[in-house]
Amino acid sequence: MSEVYNPETKRYEKLESLELEARSLVRRRDAAANAADRRVIEQQLTFVEEQIELLRKRFRR
User: Fold this and answer.
1) At what angle do helices 7-30 and 35-60 cross, to 10 degrees?
2) How many CB atoms lie within 10 A of CB 18?
3) Does any domain span residue 54?
4) In the prediction, which pLDDT does 58 show?
């Protein structure tokens, strides 16, 4: 059976992937051994959260 292409499906998959990555980064940040590690992970988390927000804005259009 063939599937119909739905571009929104890809966006939802990307959003889910980014949300999982954000949760993982939060756990890593909370378990970080020192402030330098926490700072780097916090920067990565901020970037991922910005990407999530951009995708969510696209869905609202």
Assistant:
1) 160
2) 19
3) yes
4) 86
Q: What is the DSSP letter of 31?
A: T
Domain hosting residue 43, numbered range = 9-60
Separation between Cα atoms, residue 7 and residue 24, nearest integer Å: 26
Model confidence, pTM: 0.83
Query: What whole-number distance in Å separates Cα of residue 21 and Cα of residue 9?
Result: 18
Q: Per the structure, how many domains does the chain have?
A: 1
Residues 15 and 31 sit within 8 Å (Cβ to Cβ): no
Question: Which residue type sits at 53?
Answer: E
Assigned domain for 24 exists: yes
DSSP strand E in the chain: where?
Answer: none
| pLDDT per position as a tens digit, 1-39 | 567 878 788 888 999 999 999 999 999 999 999 999 999
